[in-house]
Design a protein that fits this description.
Number of strands: 15
Order of helices and strands: EHEEEHEHEEHEEEHEHEEHHEHEH
Largest sheet: 3 strands, mixed
Number of helices: 10
Structural class: alpha/beta
Radius of gyration: 21 Å
């Protein structure tokens, strides 16, 4: 399996999705729902799109963990990759979020699932930096090269370089920070809308990095890994062509199947030679999600990849120490029984 392409994902099935008014100020990709369309209709359309993505990933042989979210105060909870990332070797990171109404998207049940079904050795929580006004929104703010250990990061309100460097120290990545702006000079709010790094291919809008020296340094850092670099235009970025993610699925026969997952809108914006370059190493899996894209994110934003080793289906017999503490009536050192719920 490629270290870059996870074989399992976490999706949040948000029943109260709407474009988040708290994030519109710095998200140039965000749009309003069609005039006259109720929030209930918007949520229903988005729910169908989420289910379609889950079904497409399962059809590709990807393991999908879906968590329902009925909380109407979390309009952006469909984007879990902003608060959570997982890493080979058993590490999980939890991130500080820029918008205050996104901070309670973090869920202990998701973390508990990871600990129970995968080998998790450490959870590193940076969310305590939020009161200091310091943010790093996960794999939205960073595009991670898990193979060469590079964290490509466009500076913004949502990507503080100080936290980036702390993350890179903790998780052994090389920080590669740069400025990225659109043609109006507006900073790119998340790196993952302008760049995608796969196993053998990288898609990036280098023209949106105004510093020519830094632009060439980013190009060189990607090229030295041997990846094919596909340069995207700003017009393609606005169609979410950069917001893609490579997954490792399975064929019905059990063989590995690498898929570059993106929206149908994103795929339509690609030129034939760009499609051909991607398909040299993986298939393209395109799903239509126009309602969710109103929030300024696309398929990659919806997927929190699981880069952890699975626990065995059948666990070994517990040792005597575990058995001792799992007794029906354990005795404490003072000779009394542990209190039980007799209701």
């Amino acid at each position: 399996m490629s270290a870059q392409a996870p074989s399992a994902v976490i999706l949040i099935r948000a029943t109260s999705f709407v474009p988040n008014p708290a994030t519109a100020a710095d998200n140039a990709f965000q749009s309003d729902a069609p005039a006259g369309q109720s929030d209930e209709a918007t949520s229903a359309h988005a729910l169908a799109e989420m289910d379609a993505l889950a079904a497409a990933l399962r059809e590709a042989g990807v393991r999908v963990h879906v968590f329902d979210d009925d909380d109407h105060t979390r309009p952006d909870s469909v984007f879990p990759n902003n608060w959570l990332s997982t890493h080979a070797g058993g590490a999980v990171a939890v991130y500080p979020m820029y918008a205050s109404n996104r901070r309670h998207e973090r869920r202990t049940d998701v973390l508990e699932m990871l600990k129970s079904e995968y080998r998790v050795q450490a959870i590193v929580d940076y969310s305590g930096l939020e009161p200091d006004g310091i943010f790093l929104e996960g794999t939205g703010a960073m595009v991670l090269d898990h193979i060469s250990r590079v964290a490509y990061t466009a500076r913004s309100h949502r990507a503080d370089v100080a936290v980036l460097e702390r993350f890179c120290t903790d998780f052994t990545y090389e920080p590669m920070a740069f400025d990225a702006v659109d043609s109006d000079g507006v900073p790119v709010y998340h790196t993952n809308v302008i760049a995608c790094v796969g196993t053998h291919v990288a898609m990036i809008a280098l023209e949106m990095i105004p510093d020519k020296v830094r632009r060439e340094q980013v190009r060189e850092r990607l090229a030295v890994t041997g990846r094919t670099i596909i340069e995207l235009t700003e017009e393609q970025i606005r169609e979410f062509a950069g917001n893609a993610v490579e997954m490792c699925g399975r064929t019905p026969e059990g063989k590995r199947r690498y898929v570059m997952t993106m929206s149908a809108r994103a795929k339509r914006s690609l030129r034939p030679e760009q499609v051909a370059a991607i398909e040299e190493s993986c298939e393209i899996l395109a799903v239509d999600i126009p309602t969710i894209e109103l929030a300024g994110g696309s398929v990659r934003c919806m997927i929190a990849g699981v880069h952890l080793d699975r626990r065995p289906v059948e666990l070994p017999e517990p040792g005597e120490n575990v058995v001792a503490i799992n007794e029906d009536n354990p005795v404490t050192p003072d000779g009394r029984y542990v209190a039980k719920d007799y209701a």
